[in-house]
Amino acid sequence: PAAAQELDAEDILRKAVDNLRGGTLAGTYTVTVVRPSRTTRYVMTILSDGEDRGLIRVIEPPREAGQAFLLDGDDLWVYNPRLGRSLRLPPSGRNGAFLGSDISYNDLAGRDLENDYTPSLLPSDGATLTLELAPKPGAPTPYGKVLVAVEADRLIPQHIEYYDQRGNVVKRAELSEYVPAGDRWTPLRMSVDDATRSGYRTEVRLSEAQFGIEVPEGRFTLQALERGGY
To answer: Which is nearest to 85 in space by CA: 229, 230, 227?
Structure first.
């Protein structure tokens, strides 16, 4: 922990995001969306290069199956199987609600915490490091700031709090059940609460994960998005 506190805030954030993403990954996400009156469960495949590209495809429930999402840098494409076409969303769309849940596209893939914010290290107790992230000028984010609690030993993100422009918490994310992923760690569970509405929560679980895989370049293209599979 002492050595970790000597690191630069940007180094800590980079390593924390490395652990959050876990490098190249293929696996299955089970997303449970909890609302006061109902609970909805989605199952989807994920393919990520661990950096800024990811391909997500919904396989359950049947009414949503076939929907797919391609993240490539600032680009976000959404494929609608009923229409047989893809729609490109603006960079700000990455912060939009994913399938009406409490998570965003950025929560599932990409390195927005590193790319869109400037970090500073707050005073800590040694066991947990707290980073305060301020949006970079022109960054496509609705948040006024983000606080990231990082375990000092392994530099893994534990909690993330998102604040609006007035300094109020609007979203909280908890990351847990970390497993080794090569020279990194990655969480198998993410729980996100809407801090503005009681009873609104989304839980994401990763299973059947393969880390450190070789991912051909052609997997993150519009053609791959629209033809199905990886």
So the answer is: 227
Q: Give residue-wise pLDDT tens across range 154-195.
A: 999 999 999 999 999 999 999 999 999 888 999 999 999 999
The H-or-E segment that residue 46 falls in is: strand 38-48
**Is the separation of the CB atoms in 8 and 16 below 8 Å?**
no
Using CB atoms within 10 Å of the CB of residue 76, give its burial: 0 to 12 exposed, 13 to 18 middle, 19+ buried: buried
| 3-state secondary structure (DSSP) of residue 152 | coil
CA-based angle 219:79:55, to the nearest 5? Answer: 30
Name the one residue in this structure whose structure tokens are 């993100």.
Answer: 157
In terms of DSSP bridges, do strands 117-122 and 38-48 run parallel, antiparallel, or are they unpaired? Answer: unpaired
Question: In whole angstroms, what is the distance from residue 162 CA to residue 146 CA?
Answer: 5
- Say if residues 175 and 27 touch (Cβ distance below 8 Å): no
The model's pTM is: 0.90
Query: Which among 203, 13, 206 has a CA at the least distance from the CA of 101?
Result: 203
SS3 assignment, position 108: helix
Asked if residue 30 lies in contact with residue 43, where contact means CB atoms within 8 angstroms, the answer is yes
Residue 9, classed as helix, strand or coil, is helix
Centre a 10 Å sphere on the Cβ of residue 213 and count the other Cβ atoms it contains.
14
How far is the first Cα of the chain from the last one, in angstroms, to the nearest whole number? 40
Task: Give the dihedral sign, CA 138/141/147/150.
Answer: negative
Per-residue tokens: 218: 């052609």
